[in-house]
Specification:
The radius of gyration is 15 Å and the shape is globular. It is mainly α. The chain is built from 6 helices and no strands. The longest helix has 18 residues. Helix 3 packs parallel to helix 5.
Length: 113
């Protein structure tokens, strides 16, 4: 199983288990997240770029992988992704560099799947 399949399978399995607990607060948070990234006044590509930059600055590797996958599905280019990487690294500082490395690797995997 490759890096992308492993991430997506684990995320899906755990989300199913968490949502099966039928906790209203958790379900509402998941719903807010889904709706925040839906098409609206701001297009999906822009929303994914925002989510990616924020995730990098917050140093959440799972979030970075998720937004990279969605960005890839939305048709963002490598050049666009690297512009987002540059903004996130500028805002977050050098502590973001390890996450930048993993993000670049994951993007490369997405492109080569």
């Amino acid at each position: 199983m490759n890096l992308i399949e492993e991430f997506n399978e684990y995320r899906s399995q755990m989300n199913d288990k968490i949502l099966a607990e039928d906790n209203k607060v958790i379900k509402r948070i998941f719903n807010l997240d889904t709706n925040a990234y839906a098409e609206g006044s701001v297009d999906i590509k822009s929303k994914e770029m925002i989510g990616l930059a924020c995730s990098m600055v917050l140093r959440c590797d799972d979030c970075v992988k998720y937004h990279l996958g969605k960005s890839y599905e939305a048709g963002l280019t490598k050049e666009q992704i690297f512009e987002v990487f540059s903004i996130a690294t500028l805002i977050g500082g050098t502590i973001v560099i390890p996450h930048l490395r993993r993000a670049a690797e994951y993007w490369e995997t997405l492109e080569n799947q």
